[in-house]
Amino acid sequence: MTITTLPDLLDKMWSDYTAMNPQALKIYNSFLERGDQVQNDHIAFRTFNHPKVTIDVLARPFLESGYEYRQGYHFTAKKLYAKHYEHPNTQMPRIFISELKLEEFDDDLQNTINQLVDQVPDYATQQFDFCSNGRPWEVSYETYEQLREKSEYAAWMAAHGYRPNHFTVFVNALSSFSDIREVNEFIKQNGFKMNDSGGEVKGSKDVYLEQSSTLADTVEVDFSDGTQSVPACYYEFAQRYPQPNGELYQGFVANSADKIFESTNKSQ
Ligand code: NI
Question: How far does residue 224's CA lie from ligand 1's centre (Å)?
Fold first, then answer.
């Protein structure tokens, strides 16, 4: 099926994501069983700042579907830049896209990533659903491990390519929980592990946003030199607070997201 509309793209991404990350579907269903409605706060994507596959390339189908750019974020230590987009219909998830700043790495990593991106045919990036078409290159597990020494983010991208890195439950819309801490307890009681890098809850009421996330599921990935188990995707939770003007904060907090990125680290 050719995907040409936003609703079809969102459906495809959710079904691919839950097929690859069964924990997300189990958690989603456990909220429904409690009688909660699950609203999606945001969907996050990753890429490289190589001109062929920048944030702006990934953002294209969303901009064509009415999304608007809102804000940019710098992650100095992880050498990332990100942008977030919102849709006029506030029921629609925000879109968060980050890119690895290749020029801040050594020639070796840059050459490796260029060799991957060179394998992407031009027509592929033109497709409406490019951001969810998976890995458009061949890569070895040896290369994956070499990348991981310099950037867990680069290694994740090399292994998985283009697909949502995570979906996010909007905690404010869960009627049976009073806050994100109760949600975290519920997740753990159900047997899932939370990312506790920087504390289980990232952010605070003072920055109008609290976030937490599960640790990524592990999946079998076919590399050119064999199949290996590597971290896949995680499920995130976000609670938003009103700003002094009374409106809920709509953006992201770089310091919090910095730690959330580590939910796909292999070392965990
Ligand atoms: Ni997120």
Answer: 30
